[in-house]
Amino acid sequence: MNVKLLVSALLLGTAAMPALAEEPVFDAQAVRAHVTFLADDLLEGRDTGSRGFDIAANYVASQFIAMGLKPAAPDGSFFQKLTVREARLDGAPRLALTYGGKEVVLSETAQVLVRPSLTDAKVAFEAPLVFAGFGFDRPDLGFNDYKGLDVKGKIVVVLTGFPKGTPSELGAHLNSDKAMMAMKRGAIGVISVPTTEDSARRPWDKRVAISDGPAKGWVGTDGKAFTRTPGIKGGATLNPDAAAPLFAASGKPLDKILAEANRTGGKPRGFAMKAKASLAYAQTWKDVQSENVVAMLPGSDPAVAGEFIGMTAHLDHIGIHGKGEDTLHNGAMDNASGVATMLEVAKAVAKEKPRRSVMFAALTGEEGGLIGSDYLARNPVVKGEVVGLVNFDMPVLTYMFSDVVAFGAENSTMGKVVADAAKKAGIKLSPDPMPEEGLFTRSDHYRFVQQGVPAVFMMTGFEGPGEKAFRSFLKDHYHQPSDDLKLPFDWDAGALFAKVNYYTVMGLANGAERPKWYAGSFFGKEFAPKAAKAADPVK
């Protein structure tokens, strides 16, 4: 036998056969390694603009370099730089309510909470009050809270949240848009009063505890902080106990209004209040420099290489603040776990060279109000179009999950890709188990949705031990110093979370068509009215 000829023939035969892609194996210890570094005390909680955040940003950039990814920032680096303004109250705010022939002045946090202004060093205005229910001005969607109300030049008083029974993603969007709706009606201020459900979920003392941090926003090249509601001079949140006499003076007991709001489908009607309010407060500003860590992988198919699938995870946490022996907030789950799983997915994707290009971004300022994602969505770094986005935020990895919740999946053709990915990973999809939390608008993908990009983000599900573990984390560790490496991490769960997201990203990047909004999706109609739509799926 001529061994050389046999070997040559085998090599030629192998070369002629198409290479079969191997299924990636996700390493639980690699996820652990990333989290261990990012949640270390030395990074001091990765607050936006801090040295600890910059160290974390350099770590992520070094990982991108090791993967062979290309820098995506305008200056040829991995860092899209931005200025973030921090605003803190300078002294106590003064809210004066005039009703029933008397003036009641509220300044204590036990009564009122005021968010500092990013655009005005001093705020002072006075106007009549008008109650506008939940503050929704969308008659086309069945919400007509401003019907018959004149709020031009006035302060609107609204309830927090949205009517019970409203689809959670729609309700979350409308809830986040209340100030915009008020401004379009001509209002100059907004005062919010928590509902019964909202107060049960977040008692007033919890609100006070998290109110000590600064307001944050990105600053444009003109030196002005960006705002979507320039016509709103200011606002406040009023403790229901302090608000009750105000409503009583107008002959409308607050307890009855809250009871109506607590009923499924309940929509308290608005009315002109027999009262006025003046609000005055000052703030100090501090501008800090921060960065989004951005990279890209060119697509292998020239026909679709200009279409990018985005992968995002916020790198920041809330730093050092508060009272007590431990004031360092490491953010191991929020969001070192999300960054860690994104990095492992990025590593696997980089080896595959999919048809479409992929953008990777570790974002700053999520905790301050989705700042880095808003800046990136409005200031693209890729020479192409982001056509779909997968976001990684706070997978709770203290248990081996058997299902995931995919927020946004039902709005676009991304939903089928996610469903196939879950099936391939051996898990199932479940509906939103906590609609009252309004999670769809509370993470970075939402800023891309507002720019018309279909998006999805997954959280570990509630099946089996999931609900107890997830709710326990939210109750005892979320935004607490105890969100650290002492938590009982199940690193194999991290590997599984990476796997289902990998299948999702690869399904989108290699798909025959780019993701499309469904024709009946509110978000597609609202933010991408001119984009081609897919027919709604048959249910």
UniProtKB/TrEMBL annotation:
Residues 292-500 form the Peptidase M28 domain. InterPro entries: M28_fam, PA_dom_sf, PA_domain, Peptidase_M28. SUPFAM superfamilies: PA domain, Zn-dependent exopeptidases. Residues 127-198 form the PA domain. The keyword Signal applies. Keywords: Signal. Residues 1-21 form the signal peptide. PANTHER family: METALLOPEPTIDASE M28 FAMILY MEMBER, PEPTIDASE M28 DOMAIN-CONTAINING PROTEIN. This is M20/M25/M40 family metallo-hydrolase.
